[in-house]
Amino acid sequence: MTESEKKAVLTVTLMAAFADGAKHERERDEIRRIAEGLATDGLHLPSLYQDVLMNRVSLPAVVAELKSTEAQHLAYEMAVCVCDADGAQSEVERRFLESLRAAFNMPAEAGREFDRMADSIATAPLVVASATTARGTQVDETALDRTILNAAITNGALELLPETLSTMAIIPLQMRLVYGIGKAHGYELDTGHVKDFLATAGVGLTSQYLEQAGRKLLGGVLGSIGGGLLRGLGKQAVSSGMSFASTYALGHVARRYYAGGRTLTAAMLRDAFDSVVREGKALQGQYLPAIEEKARSLDAGKVLQLVRGA
Question: Cα separation of 66 and 72, whole Å?
């Protein structure tokens, strides 16, 4: 894929991120931070961010830069994933995706299987098949340690896979981890609460997808595969291991938060998360063999089963 096509794919993705105009200022700040962090010699992403935010680019002009079918499919898949990252698509987001399909002259049925799989991931329930523990009951700390580490390894494995849906699956698995930890400490949570917890800790849903997918794309790892999953591993050098570290941190900070009766302030949560992320990054190399082994065992069906809790 050419540099101009990568630029166009990222521009389409940013346009999708802001399609509904309802992003919280905190999420906008995260997206800007990520654009600055992903800047390369050939692409100045902060400029792309500003162009999209100020409506200085048009969809037809961007689409015209996507010459290959591969690049067009990848742009569409990333747009679908970013629209689904924070849950089911809004009506405005659906219209944006319809406009994108029309701009690509995609047949009516093109991408439908991918759309179905992405929607299945975005709307997967949080339900964990275990009873809520009464508050004050002794929690099995060893089992909780194991659960957090396994979740971090799984999401680290998804980060290595070179396709869009694997990246999208990281977010709902993080949400399910937080939900399960709250339940173990006697709290019955809903999706809104879990999203708020992630956002307060500093994990934006749309921005996290953009960061992971952007790193893969710029590193030449992300590939369009028309709705299926590939069985190869991406280049570990492209990744900072953030999925392992952020999942590890979310698990341990959630544990501290719910064990302490939800008394941590927003600032304390953010500080705790940043601290444990650094710890997770230090541990990622130690668990890389387990992460790679897990990645080799994943395919499309298994990714969907993980997200659905099967």
Answer: 6
